[in-house]
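Reviewer comment 2.1 asked that we show a complete input and output for one of the modelled complexes. We chose the 1-O-alpha-D-glucopyranosyl-D-fructose case, as it is the one discussed in the main text.
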Amino acid sequence: MAEQKNKWWKSAVIYQIYPKSFQDSNGDGIGDLRGIIQRLDYLENLGIDAVWLSPVYRSPQDDNGYDISDYQDIDPMFGTMQDMEHLICEAKKHNIRIIMDLVLNHTSDEHRWFQEAKKSCENPYHDYYVWRDGEEGILPNDMKACFGGSAWEWVPEVKQYYFHQFSIKQPDLNWENSKVRQEIYEMINWWIDKGIGGFRLDVIDQIAKEPDHRITCNGPRLHEFIREMSKTVFQKEDLITVGEAWGANTENAKLYSNPDGSEFSMVFQFEHIGLDQQVGKEKWDLAPLSLLSLKKALSRWQKALDGCGWNSLFWDNHDLPRIVSRWGNDKEYRIESAKMLAILLHGMQGTPYIYQGEELGMTNVRYPISEYRDIEILNMYQERKALGYPKSEIMESIYAKGRDNARTPMQWDQSANAGFSMGRPWIQVNPNYMEINANEELNDPESVFMCYKTLIALRKKYPVFVDGHFELLCSEDETFFAYARENEQEKMYVICNFYGNKAVFPEERDWEHMELLYSNYKTEIDSSYYQPYEARIYYVKK
Ligand code: TEU
Ligand code: CA
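Response of the prediction step:
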């Protein structure tokens, strides 16, 4: 096992690409690998170290590639294996590593393994999936799938139900079967040999399931499986590995990101992501965010993993709404609040992830229902309509939390379709692209893009960004999110006015004798007044 102390990914910044929506190179309206290659200069200019690609494997696209029918092939819609190899090689020239998305909890029902598995109970692949005997219409139990409906689906040929935590077209793999695990490890090794720099592991905390006991998350054998996988494949190379774990808490996160290197580099945890929904309900059941609870959650993670694990830092991904629309103000203070949220996140300890378009301050959308594409949105819409929810309420939930908010095409310039595609995009472009696009922002020193670029550069220049201990300031204050970071040589303060009113920071410090390292306003160094959404980083060498 390799000690994780001075790993490259601790000072790295990762950029997530959702290939379908990033750049289309051939006018079919769908982003592709060649499109990504065309934009490597842009990514190098931003200063990121690695790109996490959402799945580009062969897939029927029931869940936009999170339903894989061949792990060792590229979906023709994205290009060819040659394009993929070309991307890995070209990215390297820009000092960018490629991180693949591994979906190991389930495959597509069109995967060869499942096609075999459903032929008969004697088929060698049958036990690759999770089956229960039954009679048609009498379900093994009442467990529900994440995208609606029962988690059980009947297959008449074998007179059994298979288990699926997501859509019907995403049957769960049976990790209890060691053959499944070996096949997966071989496949991962094959990708490592192609020069992949790391992996993001989709819903990894859901692989060790026991449906008879209704266990889907954090199953008893979870960490055993992860350690086996880590030892067999990941530890052989200097990779970054990040597990997606909705069920992570600070205790199990210390296992996942154990400094001895026995599991992953880090996990995505979602505690802060659930704070603006009604307790015990679904994400669609909206509630206002309490700043105090956000401060509490994030600072607890900062403290808990310091020295005994490693955090990932993110606001956005392809499943989440745009942060500037969510916890900022995407109207009169769009630029200020997008920058404030960036400063707040990038000043913390951990590896920051930027989701495509976040660095431009891209916003949520409000489309008629016919323009949405996401299976989760469409299933929820039908389900809630049947339950009698008013249409306007359902639409408000979609505007606030729908995954397609993150999946509208990347806004490159003012040309047709925001420069994303010469053809008709698979999902509508956000109509605000004339105002919000990369081309405008690259030419504007005060843009959101330039803020992200500066934050990435600061992280590389000042070690305190990476190793400084975290201390929350004015924990009970309901306006400011402020904290200090400190190592033996340096100290910095990150002070953010979280709202759109002018405010005075309540704690006294010797601000005049500190360097104002960065701010989203042009401020006097000792001004105790903070403008709407103003954020500052003060710095002292000890
Ligand atoms: O997401 C995991 C997951 O649990 C999501 O379904 C999540 O609950 C939802 O998106 C919140 O709105 C991962 C992928 O990131 C997602 O895109 C996939 O759809 C899902 O796994 C299935 O592979
Ligand atoms: Ca294309």
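The first strand starts at residue 14 and ends at 17. We note this here for comparison with the apo prediction described in Section 3.2.
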